[in-house]
Amino acid sequence: MSAPRIAQFKLVLLGESAVGKSSLLLRFARGVYEDNRESTIGAAFLAQNVRLEPDLVVRFEIWDTAGQERYKALAPMYYRNANAALVVFDLLSQESLARAQSWVRELRVQADDGIIIALVGNKLDLLNQLKAESPNSSGKIGISEDAKSYAAEAGLLYYECSAKTGENIEAVFKGVAEKMPINE
Ligand code: GDP
């Protein structure tokens, strides 16, 4: 059997500090999760493959950026020439969604035209736990609905996942891989 074809793309992770960007990447690339990880300083880099077809592999070069304001000026360096961006927020933090929306606006102005942007709500395990604890709650829990309608309006891919349990993590990267401009 011949070796699969490998198509390589650059993917950048953006979002407020502590939404779980590094955890998401560790879960996807290494299959592990650690509570109370230390924050990313500057940026970290990993490469990881997604098999799209038996003979086609998408290889993502993934840049994990620090969410802290003091590193914000460095971000353009990471999303320059990026084919894809995962803009991550915490499904229980309205503020992190607002921050995600401002990243999307920045990408639309500054990043390459063809960039595929996915809005990714992380910590789904916590959201599900809260819902289970108050099954009769009439008030809304979390910000899924706001995030979903924003993503639809803005034409973004949308996912909800948990780096902690691994739920939906593969789907995020596979979904983005499927949108990559692969030449026949
Ligand atoms: P980053 O600053 O965006 O890279 O966030 P980190 O990956 O460092 O995660 C921040 C904190 O949130 C850490 O204490 C993680 O253990 C925790 N965390 C990350 N992902 C999840 C998740 O899916 N569920 C829960 N419950 N906690 C998470």
State Rg.
16 Å
Q: Alpha-carbon distance between the termini? A: 19 Å
Beta strand count = 6
Please state the structural category. Answer: alpha/beta
Low-confidence stretches: none
Detailed description of the structure:
The chain has 184 residues and is α/β, with parallel strands linked by helices. The protein contains six helices and six strands, in the order βαββαβαβααβα. It has a six-stranded mixed sheet with strand order 2-3-1-4-5-6, sandwiched between helices. A hairpin with a 2-residue loop joins strand 2 and strand 3. It starts with a strand and ends in a 6-residue tail after the last helix. The chain binds guanosine-5'-diphosphate. Guanosine-5'-diphosphate binds next to helix 1 and helix 4.
